Amino acid sequence: MTCREMLAGLPRSLGLAIAMLALALLAPAAARAAASPWVGNRQASVRLITAEEATGSGGAVDGGLEIRLAPGWHIYWRTPGAAGLPPAITWQGSRNLKGAPISWPAPLRIALDGLQSYGYEGTVVLPIALRLAQPGAPLHLRATVDYMVCRNICVPRHAVLGLALPSGIALPGPEAALIAAARSRVPGDLARLGLTLVRAAAVPAGARRSDLVLTLAGRTASLIAPDLFVEGLPQGAPGPPHLMAGDEPGRAILVLRGIEAPATVLAGRLLKFTLTDGPDRAATFAARPVPAAAIAGAALLPFGVLALAFLGGLILNVMPCVLPVLALKIMAVAGLAGAERRVARLELLTTAGGVLAGFAVLAAALIALKAAGAAVGWGIQFQQPWFLAAMTMVMVLFAADLWGWVTIAAPRSVAAVAVRGHHRSRRLSAFLAGAFATLLATSCSVPFVGTAVGFALARGPAQILAILFAMGLGLAAPYLLGAAAPGLVTLLPRPGQWMVRLARLFGVFLLGTAFWLLLVLLRAAGWIAAGSVAGLAVLLLGLLFWRHRLASHHPALRRLSSAAASLALIGAIVVPGIAAAPPSPPAAAGTAWRPFTRAALAGGLADGKVVLVDVTAAWCLVCQVNAATVLDRAPVAEALAAPGVVLLRADWTRPDPAITRYLQSFGRYGVPLDVVYGPAIPAGIVLPDLVTSGEVLRALQSAAGARRAAER
Amino acid sequence: MTGSVPFPLRLGRRSAIAGLGAACTLAAARRARASDLDTLSDALEQVNPPTIPPSFSFQTATGARQTLADYRGRGLVLNIWATWCGPCVAEMPALDALAARVAPFDILVLPVSIDQQGLAAVKPFYGTHGIAHLPILLDPDGDVARAFKVQGIPTSFLVDRFGRVVGTVEGPVQWDSAGAIATIRGLIGPGLSVQTQSG
Predict the structure, then answer these.
(1) pLDDT in tens, A299-323
(2) Do B90 and A153 touch (CB under 8 A)?
């Protein structure tokens, strides 16, 4: 990567700079100047400056390269990140110059479509120590500067700058302040920020990636919006770090996720870190990360995680989003009443097998997506309008099935099965009921499940498989229990008319679920899509009813109605993809909730406010429960309405890469996620998935704590 | 009982589960390519009437010299880029996806790298960034950029089947969106071979 290369690529018209150089060098240096003329254009220009107007008697002169950029343009730091080139200066043609090391002020993070670059915007001075070969003698500087400025395009630039300093007393010139200010932005050591590094660890995150975890001690509470830049990585440029409370009071943990190197490669490697916190605070330090098993604070044993996953699966059985399927399953069990024990056992095992098979498919899909580098998540399929439409129609179909209007192979009309006892189709329907339960379960991120799935998704394929398998076991546990003790099943009432009535009632449950899915679709894709799917669902139901009422001696009409029903079904899945409306402007006026952005969060924190970030989605039942029972109710609602509290809501109903990244910065791959920030806890406190009033109030109080202390 | 189930619904069983599984997978996969980049229609400057491009040559990975005349008859998306250029790197995955999606219409994507190290810079880049559908084309001397007098890179040119420039694009764009592909096909026109087949 040479300077010549940059020049080679682009038109020579920019080499106009050379003409300027001639002027600069030929101009009589009689007037004492501590700056060269600017060379460049409106987009970007550069000049040489020195702090003193003469060389004085010291061995070096404090100088600098000042770069002025038009808004939107940037140049690069010494380590440019994912792509870029730092400015390069050669001093050929200079006289009395022994060396000119550059000091680099702390960089800014510049992200383009997820690609991380490090650089500077606006006006920046790169301080340069101009070492003299002969102290006291005049200094003639000739600097050839090759640099690249980028906005949405990159333009290599070339400039030749000249500056002459006579010998004499080194009085500070007008540019001295610029250089001093720039020097103050060159990162010092950690102690300058009142911090010490406790430990740097490389934690495996999959086979080819790892996380870097830095534990800091000292004045960690003063960290507001830290950023961390790493030099010396084999490849890749990590995104911003996540700040977490440490394992001990007064400690903070900075986590850089998704480093493109295995932990074994990072361990022991000398890495240079630059920590910034706002424009004026920066420190640089080197460390060799030690290999570590897991992030401190989230150090759950795999067994503990598996147990959580199992428990989560068990709880899923009674979660509202799985209830409709549970209805089907209850009937599958009820259908066994009075059946022989062997058959009952087999059928329960089959349902359990269906659940496990469903989780196996899910695990395989997640592993494949993760391997393909996709942003995976728990429940993100509910962000897809056509998926919601398909699920709505599935619900309607099954409701019609339960009412006996249509006979679908899966899960077969229970009453018919119970009476006729086709063993093969019974087993198939038992299996499919299990698999279907799995599918719907993906819309719930219940307590435990969120943690376990998040853990799994942050790890490798084996962990994903193991954890989803454990969760499947939990969901299948009631059936496995029933299979182990088939005597329990015979306690259910004998099959009879009550089952038909129960089936009708469950049909209503399913229609209710379909209605809920339509409401989610309304949020995700707008009125037109939701309205047309609703219309098609009603049409489908009507057609099925009509077909049911037509006696079997109207085969032609029945066939016609079946064909029409199929068309309605296909139409419902196709339409929302076409009719999906663009996102509506979020957050209606009148509510205290503002849409979440990183900037809003940083702004709130900078103002010393307490900030609550609520990541939610229309399809997430737990989120709705949290809002209805805790956040929107006294006493929490009153506490949140206080003037010192900023409420930010991140709506993940539709796909949103920024929110996905925020979730992933917590190692989360699902909603809900509620985080409270404040002056006392700038790193944020993550609230449990299912929040309680007490926890929210306590979190708000402790986050605000320092502010009160400071006011006293 | 199953015998009475009419054809479309009888398909239900296995295909229903397979379909739902696939739905999950697809839903998640489609979500993956969200992008902050501009759309093509925002960044595109149409060249009307079309112009004849300046003459220049570039090299293939094997060192063979080529010019645009070697591609006469096919639609081209000519992209000037370099591995050290952030915006260029940002749009490479989209260009790679575009290449696969416009190939059936006899449209080629030609990314010409002006990296001075040539193959030594570009080949590892294709490997680490998983570029699978783009040819390696090199112009270590920067002839292409100079010939077109580009302001900066990335700059792309849409070239029709008669070898005429019909559009220019400055900066990175979402090349692989359905809208971009429709725009490119519209500007470049139908494939000559396709025309003969249908006519």
Answers:
(1) 344 566 778 788 888 887 766 556 6
(2) no
Between chains, do B84 and A1 touch, taking CB under 8 Å as contact? yes
Instruction: Please check whether the two domains, A3-184 and A190-291, share a CATH topology.
Output: yes
The B residues from 131 to 190 touching A (CB cutoff 8 Å) are 140-142, 145-146, 149-155, 170-172
Q: How high is the pLDDT of residue B88? A: 94
- Asked whether the beta carbons of residue B9 and residue A151 sit closer than 8 angstroms, the reply is no
- On the question of pLDDT at A370 being above 90, the answer is no
CB contact under 8 A, A4 and B116: yes
A447-459 pLDDT, tens per residue? 556 666 766 666 6
Mutation site, A381, A546, A661, interface B, largest B CB count within 10 A: A381
For the domain made up of A3-184, the CATH class stated in words is: mainly beta
How many CA atoms, within 13 angstroms, populate the side-chain half-sphere of residue A279? 7
Instruction: Choose the weakest-confidence range: A122-126, A326-330, A654-658.
Output: A326-330
Strands B58-60 and B65-66: antiparallel
Q: Do B25 and A8 touch (CB under 8 A)?
A: no
Whether the CA torsion A292, A297, A301, A307 is positive or negative: it is negative
**Distance in Å, alpha carbon of B155 to nearest chain A alpha carbon:** 8
Task: Say what the pLDDT of residue A147 is.
Answer: 94
Q: Which helix (H) or strand (E) holds B77?
A: strand B75-81
Residue with tokens 């009921």: A433
Q: Which fold does the domain A190-291 belong to in CATH?
A: Immunoglobulin-like (2.60.40)
Chain A (27-66) residues lying within 8 Å, Cβ to Cβ, of chain B = none
How far is A372 from A381, CA to CA, in rounded Å? 17
How distant, in Å, are the alpha carbons of A55, A133, A143 from that of A58?
Answer: 7, 11, 21
Is the N-terminal amide bond of B154 cis, ω within 30° of 0? yes
Mean predicted lDDT score pLDDT of chain A:
78
Residues with Cβ within 8 Å of B100's Cβ and at least 6 positions away in sequence, in order, are: B132, B133
Per the prediction, chain B carries an average pLDDT of: 80
- For residue range A277-287, list pLDDT tens digits in order: 888 889 999 99
Residue A264 exposed, middle or buried by CB count within 10 Å (0-12, 13-18, 19+): exposed
What ipTM goes with this model? 0.79
Q: Which CATH number fits domain A593-711: 3.40.50.150, 3.40.30.10, 3.40.50.1010, 3.20.20.70?
A: 3.40.30.10
pLDDT at A247: 62
Domain boundaries, chain A: 3-184, 190-291, 302-579, 593-711
pLDDT at A421: 43
Residues of A in contact with B150 (CB under 8 A): 10-11
Residue pair A308/A463 in contact (Cβ under 8 Å)? The answer is: no
- Say if residue A232's pLDDT is above 50: yes
